[in-house]
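Troubleshooting: if your tokenizer reports a length mismatch, compare against these two reference records.
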Amino acid sequence: MISSSKQRTFGVVLQYAQMALGIIISLAYTPIMLRLLGKTEYGIYNLASSIIAYLSLLSLGFGASYIRFYSIYKRENNQDGIKRMNGLYLLVFTVMGLVSLLGGLVLASNAEIFYNDTYTKEEIEIAKVLMFFLTINLAVSFPVSVFTSYITSQEKFIFQKIINMGKTIISPAVNIVLLYLGYGSIGMVISTTVISLIVDATNIFYCFTKLGMRVSFKSPDFHLLRDIFFFSLFIAMNQLIDQINWQTDKVILGKICSGAAVAVYAVGAQINSMFTSFSTAVSSVFAPKVNLIVSKNEENMDEQLTTLFIKVGRIQWFIMTFVLLGFIFFGQFFISKWAGNDYGNAYWVALLLMAPAIIPLIQNIGIEIQRAKNKHQFRSLVYLIMAILNVGISIWFAMMWGEIGTAIGTTISLLVANGLIMNIYYQKKLGINVIEFWKSIGKTVPGMIIPIACGVCLMLFYKFNSLVDFILLALAYTVIYAISVYFLGMNKEEKDMIDGLFKKFLRR
């Protein structure tokens, strides 16, 4: 039996292995997809995905509340309560799935309202088919999410990550075959749906046969449903905000500009999505631990949470800064070779989305702390106001500067909401010593000076001549960053962790 702490450690390692694998696959897969689909069809596919993604809001944030209420029942050793809670969640999410299915079918049949006159009738028909299968995939994901939440609550991160790694490999491989056979974006979305169903069935089987998950539909606890609803209401608002910030730009561009503009923005957004995943890989495995600390409600709870906040935030900072700086120095050449010269603006879109996002990304364990303390309402209200302003700014800027304009709108909202307002809230209301957090981050700056200086010199005085140059210089940057940060940026605990991982690797 692997302990919870080792599950978390291996979970983080496997998550990064999955991301590395995903990036490697994406490097080979995305250029093929872009060239076989073409700019317009790729834009249609992304716009259809963004539209259907809004139906995920029907979950009302219930999924994010599962671990919190499970932790309460587990602490009380109330197995009957856990069974009834599982049954309640399954009933509610099945209804949500059916509603999303109906809503998606309505949207698919009226797809033309989301596309302007630059799209042909044939392209609209493709969009309708894409939206139909995306709807099926989403509808099934609602009830299945209960089982994935249960696996997380049991801290079985190794199983989760291995399954996800398998999906990361298989899905693009099948899609490439279908693209070469001429099935286009429709073939892609059908294969993705089938593979997702297989993964879902695997998770359900694992829950019942290996984890002993039990479900009871007798006497549903509607008082619990009320508590879940009020707890989840503001989480649902956060999900709405995320949809506005990360999906609405594509809808705006699809209506105001063209499928080509959507495609360019989508490439930049894809890079930002990979950037974001580097942070959530760490924080996601600490959600059960955060809930446990809060549920114990010990006298030094805030001190424990601040320590965890700083510890996880510093790890995320080292990783995120490495990626962001690397993209600044190497991103333009990378996009030109990876996506093509027609996608040059994707560099600026990605940079405008990534740079301000680094603040919430190194603090995203704070979201788990807010939820565990049931103090996530303020964040939701702030983000909602900023998201609404983001839409207005993005529409205005899109008319002037296209895809770059919409990215600027998102940049402004992220800086104000995350960089300023939420840090004040963490300090004043959540009990997190944010001042100490930023002091700790500031102590890492000496480790960044050398790689930044090298990168700036590279941008000013060198022009990439070949892919070999790019790879060798990227490796050199990686080595310089790692050595500089290790000796000049990390504290003793972090160095000991790196040394321990290195020694284990050498023994094996």
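Reference record two:
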Amino acid sequence: MNKQQSERWKDRSSRRIPGGAQTFSKGPLSFVQGVLPNFLARAEGPYVWDVDGNRFIDYILGLGPVILGHADPAVNEAVRHQLAEGMAFSLPHPIEVEVAEALCERIPCAEMVRFGKNGSDVTAAAVRVSRAFTGRDKVIRCGYHGWQDWYIGSTNRSLGVPEAVRRLTLSCAFNNRAALQEVFRANHSEIACVILEPATFDAPAAGYLEGVKELCAREGALLIFDEIVTGFRVAIGGVQQHTGVTPDLACFGKAMANGFPLSAIVGRADVMRWFEKVFFSFTFGGEAVSLAACLATIHELERRDGIAALWRNGARLQEGTRQLIRNAKLDGTLDCAGMPPWTTLRTLGMDERNALLFRSLFQQEAAKRGLLTHGNHMLSVAHDDSVIDATLAAYAEIMPILADALHKGDVERRLEGEPMQTILRT
């Protein structure tokens, strides 16, 4: 694989951009160095091309924003039309109302809507409005919720966050209602909200989300679903639509505009009305081009029955991958975990270092066969049967290599560059 231009861009980037990228998960720490490309030049459908012209099936999809496929013609046409009309207006534009109405029609908890640009915008807004509504300061979180102080201060990436802020965020394991109940007990009448990802690569256990909702109601705290990833992917209305459990507030982002920057906080009107007093305001909150992309994305997902396609093709990829894992006698070491629209190759029974080395070898061998992945499978509607076929054909070659490396104990020796590193421990 030619990587000459990619290495040149990496060198230039390292001189001017701390860490070499604007997002940790897109930077050098997330890829086997010297093997994976460093810069991409263009994208179309399920494919991306790096700056050296190498093509890959993309299972990262910009960290999740692409739901229909890169450069989707219908979305791009809607964007071109809105660009001709204007992008940043001095008063609200009708499209703000149209998108808010569309979300309220499709998201179970949504009675009112405010827009942001990134997931961190709206998770921070959800916490702030919850504190205002309840008159309480402490937050219980479960999952990954962005870069803002209230959350990141509770992780290993807490540099720069005051200790006083860090003490206000409490952590609780997913699918453990008893642990959540204990945190409430230890902080009686102090919890403003519980914010959690309602599903990740682990599905919610039977009755878990219902139990969390009941606990929050009993304790006078608000329940927030962080559906930044699951919204528009598990269902347009997210996990709450899929499970029937409705939170007080929910945060959407990533896939809602097929790659254009947009997020939203939605929820109960009596809580959302507090945004008339709580300060959540910035220049591009009503930026019209991304809102046009959102409307087009909704219409195209529905017209193409896109959610069903994600589940169908994702299930085929997941089941096929699991069979190849069994064929290579890697079951017990590796699993394809998660819901079909978003799965991951999860290592089993390994410590963190060995798991990273194993995943790095997988990533390396996948890249050699034209697959760009962190070890996850983020699907778009454009990931059709032919793409799944090509992926499974590559995995049929990769799984025996992984098994042989594990058997011989030489996983690290087979790496052709520096392995992936852990970015964040949540």
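Descriptive notes for reference record two:
- The mean pLDDT is 97.
- The first helix runs from residue 4 to 16.
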